[in-house]
Design goal:
heterodimer, A: alpha/beta, Rossmann fold, 8-stranded mixed beta sheet, 11 helices, 12 strands, B: mainly alpha, MetI-like fold, 2 domains, globular
Chain lengths: ~325, ~325
Amino acid sequence: MTALLEVEGLRVRLPTPTGFATVVDGVDYHVEQAQVFGVAGESGSGKTMSMLALLGLLPPGSVVEGRAAFGGKDLLRLRGRDLRAVSGRDIGMVFQDPMTSLHPMLSVGRQLTEHVRRHLGLGRRAAVERAEELLVQVRIPDPTSALHAYPHQFSGGMRQRIAIAIALACGPRLLIADEPTTALDVTVQAGILRLLDGLRREHDLSVILITHDLAVMSSIADRVSIFYAGRVVESGSRASVLPHPRHPYTRALLDALPHPEAARDTPLVAIKGTPPSPQQIPVGCPYHPRCPYAIEVCTTDDPPLAPVNGRRLACHVDPFDE
Amino acid sequence: MGITLVVFVLTQLVPSNAVATNLGEQASGDPAAVAAFKSHYGLDRPLPVRYGLYLKHLAQGDLGQSSLTHDAVTHDLGQFIPATAELALYSIVIAAVFGIAFGVIAAMRRNRPTDHVLRVVSLGGISMPTFWIALVALYLGFFKLGWFPGAERLDPGVTPPPSKSGLYTIDALLVGRWGLFVQALHHLVLPALVLAAFNVSLLTRYTRSAVLEVVGNDYVRAARAKGLPERVVVTRYILRAALPSVVTVLGLVFANVLTGAVLVEKIFSWPGVGQYAYQAAVNLDVPAIAGVSLFVAVVYITVNFIVDVLYGVIDPRIRVR
């Protein structure tokens, strides 16, 4: 089975006043048909940038290297009209904060139909019908009047549903959801995740789900990649990686999850230290300054992402080998 | 109402002697004539009563009589407003079109050569006083190059088109006289450009910063992710979001054009309200000054009102329901 999207050696450098900062440093991953691929990592680990790079949405002046095969094309080589033919049509994108990702001065109907008419060549009426259908799918009550409303008239959860409807409007094969639940209440989060999961099954849709919340990921992802400092440190199927993390960073992320059933006095666990700034990635394994298992070689050699029974892991020590 | 009071008090504060300006030297020596003049114009009554009278006349559309032209101020204004309106209209259109376009271009080409050039030029436009730009433009465009006429709305001896709107370009078009239209336009170019210069710069700078404030927004990224062409992203998403700030500045531009008109009309011998105001001020023609002030105030308030209404049209979040 060939993958829907296959990314190899993706490298993103952003311009800063003091020169380029490498925010994504040689990332490989692939997304299978009708699967949810989860990308996790702390803020600043390059998750978002590696996705924005796919649709050419990086800030001007950014440098992208690598290859991203999608439907026989290399997304990273597409420009202008060719890129726009894919964006919004074959690949839909949902952003983190629905309060800012919808234009406040344009009606929901307009934002939901403009790209449909452009990509699918539908007439006004057909596009409106399609928009109503979509709103029903994402469970917006009273779709007809919702089309005439403006984003500020909806709650955060509703707006995110609208944003998802916009991303799905042209029947894409891949949906990139960048922390779609981070800005929402926990109860609303669950609803959005259920919605995404349902849509994926109905439409045979592949989803890239970016999150820093492993709990979110464990609920719907099929395969996961853990990002740290612009690299993948561990990846594999959810069933293998999340219950048995092998990389110290993955384990630390899992340990940092609060457990509601834990005893009252259990202290919350935090990963000590802060993620490195993209301008000062440590030599060797980028995680070694924060890693309790670090040994000599970690400070000098960057561990390659190597296959280790059923998963891929970038660690010299591999302290959790069973 | 507040304006009428301010205008009235100001006219009373002006150290002008209505008797002297109106009667001339000989008659002001004659006590009987002075008394007759004062009682005719109500100048022998106490101030509040005179304010009341002023308001009463105002309500009847009477702004008094100009001591310079000896015509009703309303009549004078009626004569001069169309010339200023035409000049203002063209310079505001020039300012809006170029200012907004330059601002958007500069913002989209941020920190690239185009942006730098536009920023330097607009800084120049803001820093140079209008009268200086006007004099330089007159010297170059009229005197040195001879490309443009230097004064008046039409060439000497040419009869204006029959007045419908009072705007020569429009009136000329209405009667289908192309030659006259071109001539009127030719006369307009230089003063309108000069009057627009400062405002183009102002709008360029404000539009640029307003656009820069919204380009980084998620919804702009989302619009690109939808595969919309850049033209649509810029106009529908970016410019739309920047529009409230731009409209605010457009209101300011209106005020600038009205005040700038005094200088520009003087320098280009443009027979408009600015020229009238200038003559009135120089000759201490109090009723005319009061009339012009009131006119400017009314225009200003109207423009501000329109701006407020536009906010609601542009942004659904502040729409009154």
